[in-house]
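pipeline stage [seq->struct] | target=2-oxoglutaramate amidase | organism=Escherichia coli | residues=132
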Amino acid sequence: MPGLKITLLQQPLVWMDGPANLRHFDRQLEGITGRDVIVLPEMFTSGFAMEAAASSLAQDDVVNWMTAKAQQCNALIAGSVALQTESGSVNRFLLVEPGGTVHFYDKRHLFRMADEHLHYKAGNARVIVEWR
């Protein structure tokens, strides 16, 4: 059985500036082909900021961007974003398929040394995604 081809993207993030970070990733994703999975950094729209959820892009905006990139690259796109939900702020890992199916996981084990547990609600679900 052939393995998955995975690309990991990293770049210096523009602190708390979602649109600027998406523009940077637009450029990085240009021309990427032949991959099964593309992984973006943790909190790729804001940087690892404790106050990011309050000023972050809406989940729909991020998912729409990720869906367009997944279709463009014909790959599953994954990365986490800080979001404000009805139950509080979460560090949500989104996995978006080219067909538009969205899976998500709210980070369970928050980084206590950075006081992440004081700013974000821990998830409680285990998520398994089958892909290709």
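stage status: PASS
auto-comment: The first helix runs from residue 18 to 29. The CA atoms of residues 36 and 75 lie 5 Å apart.
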